[in-house]
Amino acid sequence: MTEQKIVEIFKERNFRATPQRIAVYKYLREHPTHPDVDEIYKAVLADNPAFSRTTVYNSLQALEKEGLIQSVKIDSGKIHYDGDYKLHGHFLCEKCKRIFDFEVDDSFCKGIDGFEIKKRDVYYSGLCPECK
Predict the structure, then answer these.
(1) What's the longest Cα–Cα distance across the chain?
(2) Going by fewer Cβ within 10 Å, which terminus of the chain is more open, N or C?
(3) Could you tell me the domains of the chain?
(4) 75: Cβ contacts below 8 Å, ≥ 6 apart
(5) Per residue in 49-77, pLDDT tens?
(6) Which of 74, 66, 87, 83 is nearest to 24 (CA)?
């Protein structure tokens, strides 16, 4: 995803396009591995030596609040980040610790009258095919 495309996405949402937010969002969109804040920080630091860990963390918080990314709290309290904001679930392999995405059917939510769903978290854990 190009920086220009990211700026357009941010502009459509009236979301301020800072260099930090662009770098963090670009990394997450290009690396769908559910990295944690330390992995993201190390990756963006190479091209942006002035970025601090706090700057990266604040960018992640702003991106999540805007609904552009989601945090994934599946691995013993460790927070991972996902640049895919569409509805899907996560599977944690208990052996290799990788996190996988899977599709979720949310049609069951349509029968819940009067409720406003703000967030959906669907997590499973077990063993991936490589670790079985």
Answers:
(1) 50
(2) C
(3) 3-69 (1.10.10.10)
(4) 92, 97, 99
(5) 999 999 999 999 999 999 999 999 987 77
(6) 83
